[in-house]
Amino acid sequence: MKQRFETLSIHGGHTPDPVTHARAVPLHRSTSFTFKDTRHAADVFALREPGFLYTRLGNPTQEVLESRMTLLEGGAGSLALASGTSAVFYAVINLAKNGDEIVAANNLYGGTYTMFDSILPDFGIRTRLVKPGDLDAFATAITPATRAIFIEAIGNPTLEVADIAAFADLAHAHNLPLIVDATFTTPYLLRPIDYGADIVVHSLTKWLGGHGTAIGGIVIDAGRFDWKDKGFALYDEPDASYHGMRWGHDLPEGLPYISRMRTVPLRNLGACIAPDNAWMFLQGIETLALRMDRHCSNALRVAEFLSGHPKVGWVRYPGLESDPGHQLAKRYLPKGCGGMVVFGLASSVEGGGKEGGRRFVEQLGLFSHLANVGDARSLVLHPASTTHSQMSNRQQEEAGLKPELIRLSIGLEHPDDILEDLEQALGAV
Fold first, then answer.
1. What angle do helix axes 288-307 and 275-286 make, rounded to 10 degrees?
2. pLDDT single digits (tens) 119-172
């Protein structure tokens, strides 16, 4: 019997322990696992037999998390990692090498932007950054060296909604995989694989964990992309680091991408998730549906409140009918438009939007001023001077990041308490 999202988020990937009959997912804090004999050890290392050998590569607690996220996203396999940033990095280096390129939207989280713009070039991987709404520009940016298209489902922090199906069609027309960072939506609001995405990335740290207590990331593979293409040398040519394995040819369909990521980047670079963190994310996922409903309803009330306030110059939230992304949101986000709201103060505010924004942030009482999103608590930040400060003024402008933009991650508090805190802070600027 096919189970629904809310049921899978609690039961997916796990059954009670057959020996102890314990119902909850156990936390396995073992660094390593014994082998039956020398043959068994050799077979596990050679991928001839599944099994656990060392927690850097996998762990029974981690396996439940990966299985659950695979089910929730409708994918073929997943790999949990140490952070959302490591998930993005591994997703790229698992398909691109020196001399290769990716094409990415330029409205990315600041850390991702810097990775693509400044770090990956040191590895010989170039990123062509393009405005997210310009599909023609994306098509023009594709070259014979391109190995993937990368977008965010909802841009961080500018909140543009991506037309995932259109990007998927473009990618597949050029025999490229589409990678979607869906952190801002979670699989409860949006499953990019349903619209043609090949690879989905999440920061587990955010809404999936939901309580600001653990760091982690995950990559989910749809299992549909054909990695046998000669353009993907990492999958077509023999891998000298792994007994001449041709990853795109020597493994069953649906397995090459995640299997290679676990066996090559993870095994040798080591950005593994801690079992304790995997366990905490499983606790968060159990209540994801309930929390996201509240995040969405609270965020919509905040957006509506800000839209009618005389000291607010503009508001972005896809759930508002006036938002440029509202029509796309109606298609891709029918359950709700997430927990993020961004806005700028009116130019009439003393000192202008940027200086007024500083006073506004410091006046808030209920909101926590910190660099995170997706917490049960309401959070606030000024991205231009923090999370995106490594970008130049020109890069920020090209990405649509206005200097006065204030980012609100709306929590689970009573909505009236949230609005009262916003009202008093606006009254003080």
1. 70
2. 999 999 999 999 998 999 999 999 999 999 999 999 999 999 999 999 999 999
Asked whether the domain spanning 289-427 has the same topology as the one spanning 33-283, the reply is no
Report the predicted TM-score, pTM, of the whole model to 2 decimal places: 0.96
- Token pair for residue 31? 């660094």
CA distance 141 to 9: 39
DSSP string, 133-163: T-HHHHHHH--TTEEEEEEESB-TTT-PBP-
Q: Domain extents for the chain?
A: 33-283, 289-427
pLDDT of residue 66: 98
Classify domain 33-283 at the CATH class level: alpha beta
Q: What's the CA gap between 41 and 49, in Å, rounded?
A: 9
pLDDT (tens digit per residue) in 106-116? 999 999 999 99
Taking the C-alpha atoms of residue 12 and residue 6, their distance in angstroms, rounded to an integer, is: 10
The class that CATH gives domain 289-427 is alpha beta
User: What are the residues facing 369 on neighbouring strands?
Assistant: 380
